[in-house]
Amino acid sequence: MTNLSRREFIGAAAGAAVASGAITSPLPLRAFGRTGERLPILAIGCGNRLWAAYVQEERGLEALNLAFDMGIRYFDTAQGYGNGISETWVGKANKGRRNEVMLATKTGARKYDDVLARCEESLKRLQTDHLDVYHIHGLNYEEEVDQIEALGTVRALRRLRDEKVIRFMGVTSHTDPTALAKALDRYDFDVTQVAVNAGLQGRSPDGAGYWKKGGNSDLFGEPIAPKPYPGESFQDIALPVAVRKNIAVIGMKTTGQESLVGDGSGKASGEQLIRYALSLPVSMVSVGMPKLDFIRRNVALAKSFQPMPKSEMDSLSTRLSQANKMALDYHFHHEHRDS
C-alpha cells in the first residue's frame, strides 16, 4: 500500500466515521470507562467459540443474530480469528445495524505500516467505515511494553484515532499482568481486555506457572499447589491501574476456556464464574458462546445479575485458585493462542 493511497483511505474513512450514539439494550448497562458510552454488561466473544464451533457461516450468523436480538451490542473479534472468518461473519451479521452496535477487533501487527494496512483489511471484512475499538492483540511480555512504542504500534493507533478511523484504542492480554499494567500506566489506552476469573489467572512468582517447596531457587523441588497470593493475577496487578485511569475494562477468560467449569471442589458453574467476573470493577465481560443455548442462558444471567458478596468471591477464588492456578497460568502463558 502506497503512502498516498493510505492517506486517501484514512481521509475517506474519517469523513464517514460517526459516533455510534446511545446504545439501547434490555440488558443492564455500565459506563465504558471514560469514553462516554454506556454499554450492556455482556459481550459475545467471536474467537474459536464462534467460527470453529459453528463451522458453517449460516450457523455462525444465526448465533450472532440471536445475540443481537437478545440485547448483546458489543461484538469482540480479531484479525487472527479464523484467519479473517470471524470478522467476515461479524460484518455480515451487523450490516444494516452498524450504529446499534460496538465493533471491536484486534491486530497482531506491531510495525506502524502493518497496523494501518491491517486496519484497512478489517474495515473491509467488517463492512464498515470505522471501528469502535482497535486493540493491540495479546501483549505477552514486559519487553513488548517498549517494543510497541519503538515499532510504532501505539503511534499508528493514535493516528487512526486522531483521523477518526477508530474511536478508541485498546490493548489485550491474558499472559502477563505486570506487562499489561505497565502498558496501561504508560500509554493513553481507552480500553483494555484482560483475563479475569475466579482462578486468579496471571503469573506465578517463578514465572513458570507454579511454586516449589524451596521457592524460586529450588530448581528440582516438588511443585506445590499454588495459593491465591496477592499481586499475582490480572485482577490484582492490572485491574487497579485501569480503574485508576478510568480505562474501560472488558473481562475475558472468565471460565478459563471452560477449564473452571464443572462439578467438584475445584470447579464451579459457568453462572458462578460469570457472576464473579461481573462483580469486579469491569465494564462488561466478553464470553465465547459455542451453543445457541449458551447465549440464551448468559443473557438471562446478565439480566438478573446481582453482585456477588465479597466473602463469597474470596471463598470461590481461594478454592478455585488452589486447584487450578498452576494449570491456568501454564496454559495461557505457554499454550493458548487466540485464533
Description:
The chain is 42% helix and 15% strand. It has 339 residues and is an alpha/beta fold. An 8-stranded parallel barrel has the order 3-4-5-6-7-8-11-12, surrounded by 6 helices. α3 (57-69) packs parallel to α11, α5 crosses α7 (153-162) and α8 (177-186) packs parallel to α9 (234-244).
Radius of gyration: 20 Å
Q: Kindly state the mean pLDDT as a whole number?
A: 89
Work out the strand percent: 15-25%
Structural class: alpha/beta
The total count of strands amounts to 12
What is the helix fraction of residues, given as a range? 40-55%
Shape: globular
Task: List the topology elements.
Blueprint: H1 3-16, E1 29-31, E2 38-40, E3 42-45, H2 51-54, H3 57-69, E4 74-76, H4 85-93, E5 102-107, H5 112-126, E6 131-136, H6 143-150, H7 153-162, E7 166-173, H8 177-186, E8 191-195, E9 211-212, E10 223-224, H9 234-244, E11 248-252, H10 270-278, E12 284-288, H11 292-303, H12 310-335
Parallel strand pairs: 3-4, 3-12, 4-5, 5-6, 6-7, 7-8, 8-11, 11-12
Antiparallel strand pairs: 1-2, 9-10
Helix pairs in contact: 3-4, 3-11, 5-7, 8-9
